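Repro:
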Amino acid sequence: MNNEQDNKNTDLSTKVTHINGKWHCRILKNGVPYYESVAESREEIGPVFRALLRDIDKYYSAGDKFTSAARKRPNHKHNNKVKWPGEQ
């Protein structure tokens, strides 16, 4: 099985965990942590997941419906920009 077929046959899911006042956003691949980031507030959870899913779609599994959907609506009213550390 080539890498492209392998990526299309995987099960991606999301999980959020509140640890020490921060929201840990994880992408799970077949139930195993695959990609992770941290949101400072609940309002940033959605934008953080969209950024993670866009990265996965761009670099790892182009063509996957779950990840490519995160790239289709960049100007949607709920797609706020993630404020990375050091930004205002």
